[in-house]
Amino acid sequence: MNQLSKKNILKALRSGWTILIAVSIGIYIGLFKHEYVAYVAPVGKIYLDILKMCILPILITAISVSIARLMLAKEENTYIGRMLVVFAMSVVVSGFLGVVTGIIGHPGSGYDKAALASLGSIVRESNAPDLEISAYIPFVAQEKESFIKVFIANLIPENIFSALNTGSSLKVLFFTILFGLAVGSSNKVSSHYLLTSLDSVYLAFARMVHWLMYFLPFGLLGLIANDVSQVGISVLIAMIKFVPVALLAFFLLFILSSLIMWRRTGSFSKPLYALKDPVIMALGTGNSLACLPSTLTAMHEELGYDKDTVDLLVPLTFTICRTGPTLYFALAALFVAQFYNVELGVVGFITVIVSSIFAGLATAGASGIVLLSMLSLVLTPLNLPVEAVLILFIVIDPIVGPFRVLAMVHTACAIVTLILPKQHKVQVIAKAVVPAELNS
Amino acid sequence: MNKTKQAISITLACLILTFISSSAVSANDQPVLDEPLNEIQAIIKRGKLIVAMYSQDTPPFYYMDKNNELTGVDVVLIKGFADLLGVAVEFDRSAKFLDDVVDKVEKHQADLAICKLSMTFGRAQRVLFAEPYANLHQSLLINRLELSRQLKGRSQEETIQNLTGKLGVVAKSSYVGYAKHFKNMEIVQYPTWNEVIDHVLQGDITAAFRDDAEVKMILRDRPDTTLHLLSVVLKDADDPKGIAMSFDHRNLKDLVNFYLKSLDLNLSADKIINDYDNVIKIIQMKIKQKV
Prior knowledge:
The complex is a heterodimer of chains A (440) and B (291). With 440 residues, chain A is an all-alpha fold. Chain A is built from 22 helices and 1 strand.
């Protein structure tokens, strides 16, 4: 009896209705009951912190184990080439989609004086002080490092432990891939022991995340209440033309990836339902890595893809294939061009797409303001001003950011289904044969 | 003995002098005075201080308020001076350009000029300036789009120091001269500051050039310009503001200097713009203490 009621409670906590109710309460508190935000916000923060705590161990163990196993299985890695092609195609499509929605939606034109005034006040309130320079002493600028140099500096860790400490996911990824390759290349018994141990670590952390999912309604309530309370209504009204177009663009990307998954899995509703948890996590946390564990579980358990392959491909797609940011940068660049009445033309649009892809790549492992500041990589080649508009994008990001993450996570799953063989003729990639005596 | 002699001779001399001067005055039927009037006495005798002030309102320094009364930092400052002298103030606001104010003082059509007047070498050759009562800085209001077009991989700061294109200034103001600092720019003069702003907003000119108080005022009062205009303060290019008097009014200059020193205001652009009410209050309190 007792057992049954406990089960019921757990089931109720995982139900979609509970989550919907929690989200509604969160929005309500965030909008109208600011006095309660101080009480519920810490719950959200604690929830997100515990979740983040589990991410890096999962990232490291999942990738290194899967690479090592795939190597030990002597599997022909046919999908690495395919992966790169699909990645390239997806970011091009995302950039293109951003430009097209920007052209059709026209979010940056038609701002009257009142709208300009409220946007201007937002920029001024956000502490944009006057620039102070010397009239007589020539300014010596710090030498700018080239994009490649910066990217490599972000990619290769000098010290893996400091990379782990600061949570530089790109550096961790680089290390982990090398580590997995190294472990997989030595077919010794000790390697198998190591893999088994790493797998246990992975399972332990995955288990913790699984437990955490029961508390998701509480975490979501706190996170959403806090997010909503931080966005001023005036900002939303001032950016009323941009925010809906941005959300529409993400929605289009979402639909596109749903269609792809439909073709690849043979069912439209199954992937949608299977990816319920990652979608909720994306909207609730606005952090793509926080969605990693639930995405891995969904892809493996619900959609039936091979665990090792998914464990490798999903984190790679999350960190390298930045569809969401690419789309957003392209759209944002069009917004800025329209705002300043600059005609872009075909060459301009192509510049937007190409530089958005690079800017997206530069956001690998970044989030928040750092991510948004990469917008300058797109605006500078177009000779468009960055600083003032950047503040506007920072201010609306609590609203737009979660949807950007959602689009990216969902597209990442579609990308993985594109890389892997179609599901009706799915052939499970043989796992590394671990000697029986080690398993016992 | 000696002292008595001295006293007697001084008394005699005085008597004779008094006799001569009184007889001279009685001959011309003029008021009894032993010296020609100095400029301060002339003002007191006239009962009013004539102040030349530029015709365009320039808040918060001098402007008509809601009740159609002239007010502002400059107005309060000079009214306080007149109060201490015990005279009224008459503002002559016929000057179409700022340089015309200097002309008026030079030609004795006004006792002094106060209207956020820049102290420049050219003007100082023609009139006297009291010590500056406000220390402002030269400042640019740059069209952001134009600036980003000129960047070409350079930093913002470097680009601004080597700015090209057109530089808008108020006609016949000190900034026509200051603008020569930007060697690669063509200087364009507009009759009013508002016209300069309109043209920089439209992108006809790259930047507008005036003191930091004016530049900061635009961004504060017209937030709709914030996304299009960037304000840049040239921190080592001063623009001291002073009260101008004609060359022969040295006594007046000393008195004005004494007055300003005793007020000890240290006005800056930020202080005047962000703390205007307090600045006015402090000036009025300090004047009251002296009366």
